[in-house]
Amino acid sequence: MTDELAKNFREIFQHEHQDIFFAPGRVNLIGEHIDYNGGLVMPAAITFGTYLLTAPNTIGKFRMRSINFDESLDIDVQNSYSKKDESWFYYPLGVIDRFAKAGFELKGLDMLYFGNIPIGSGLSSSASIEVVTAFALNQLTNAGYSKLELVKISKDVENNFIGVNSGIMDQFAVAFGEDSKALKLNCDTLDYEAVDCNLGDYLLAIINTNKPRKLAESKYNERVTECQEALKALQQELEIQNLCDITGETFSEHAQLITNEIVRKRAKHVVEENDRVHKAAKELAANNLEAFGKLMYASHDSLKNQYEVSGKELDAVVEYSLTNPNVAGARMTGAGFGGCAIALVKKDYFDQYSKELISYYTDKIGYEPGVYSSLIGDGVRSLNGTLVH
C-alpha cells in the first residue's frame, strides 16, 4: 500500500515524499444516541482509514491531491482560509487555518491523501482526514500540541469551518484508538477507559447499506427535544441532570411520570442503552464475546423499536445475521437512517457470511451492500515511527 502511494506521490509532484501518516476510521461498538444525554459511548478505531504523504516544496503553496477525488487545491501560504464549497480539501484546509491563526510558521507543503473508508458510510472519514492533517502539521511545525488538543482542534474545524454540528466522539476515537481496545468514553468530561477487546476467533464485519446517510436534521433535533421532555418529567421526583444519571431499574420505578408514550420510549432506550455500555465493558474485559454479541442485538432492537432511528436496510443486515450461527451479534452503528451496521463474525466464516448476506440483502432491498472485514486497530500515527502521547 505505502509503496504504491509513494509512487503516486512521485508521479504527481515530481519528487519523493518525506513523511507518511495514517489515521483510522471508527465504529461505535455500542452506546448509540446517548452521548447528548450524559451517557457513555464505546467507539473503537478500525484498521482502514486515511493515509497522508507529505513533503515540503519551495513555491510557498499548499498543494493538495487525493487518490479518491478528482478535485485538487493549490493555495498560497497565508494567515487564514475560508470554505467556499463542499470539496473534500476543505477538511484539511480547515486544520491548516487553525494552525495559521495560532501563529505557527507554515511553509509550502505537498500533500497526497488516500482513504479506504467508504465515503458517507458513517465511519468517520471526515474526522480521519482532520485528525491525520492535524497530527502531521503538529509534527512538521513542532507545534507541541497534545493528542487531546489535536482532537479539540479537529472538532472545532468540523463544527465551525465545515459547519457540521457533531460531537467529539469521532475525532477522539480516531486519535486515541488502541489495538484490540474499545474506548469507554464520557463525551462530556472526556474521561475514558481503554477496555480489552480481543476479538479472538472473530473479526468485525462492517456492512455499508449503501443507502445515502442523509441524516434528517429535523429527526435528530426531534429526538433531542423528546429526551429533554422526558428529563423534565423525571425531574419532578428525581434530582438528575441527564437521563443517563439513572439506571434502567430506577427508570422503571418512575417511568409513569412521562405521560407521552413516545417520549417514554425514547427515554427507555437512552437509559437502558447506557446500562448496556457498562455491561458490554465487563463482558469484553472478561473476553465473553457471545454475551457482548447479545448486547449488540439488544441495542439494535431498542434503536429500531424504542428510538426508531433504524430502517429496512439496517434491519435486513441484522435479520440475516440472527440466522447465522457464526455471528455473535450485530447492530446498526452511528446515527441511523442508513449508513453502516456491524457484526461480530467468526474469521473462518467471513467469506460465507459476506456472500450470503449480500444475496439476502439484495433480494430484500434491491441493491448490494458493501461488506468489509476489520480488526480493532491503533489511532493516528506516523508511519515513520513517531507517536504523540
Automatic annotation (TrEMBL):
Annotated localization: Cytoplasm
UniProt signal peptide: none
Domain GHMP kinase N-terminal: 92-177
EC class of the enzyme, as a word: transferase
Amino-acid positions noted as binding Mg(2+) in the UniProt annotation, renumbered to this chain: S126, E158
Binding site for substrate: E32, H33, I34, D35, Y220
Domain of life per record: Bacteria
GO molecular function, one term: magnesium ion binding
Role of this protein: Catalyzes the transfer of the gamma-phosphate of ATP to D-galactose to form alpha-D-galactose-1-phosphate (Gal-1-P).
Catalysed reaction equations from the record: alpha-D-galactose + ATP = alpha-D-galactose 1-phosphate + ADP + H(+)
Active-site residues annotated for this sequence: D170
Gene Ontology biological process terms from the UniProt entry: galactose metabolic process
Name under which the protein is recorded: Galactokinase
Keywords: ATP-binding, Carbohydrate metabolism, Cytoplasm, Galactose metabolism, Kinase, Magnesium, Metal-binding, Nucleotide-binding, Transferase
Record domain Galactokinase N-terminal: where: 8-55
UniProt pathway annotation: Carbohydrate metabolism; galactose metabolism
NCBIfam families reported in the protein's UniProt record: gal_kin, PRK05322.1
Family as reported in the entry's similarity comment: Belongs to the GHMP kinase family. GalK subfamily.
Name of the coding gene: galK
Pfam families per record: GalKase_gal_bdg, GHMP_kinases_C, GHMP_kinases_N
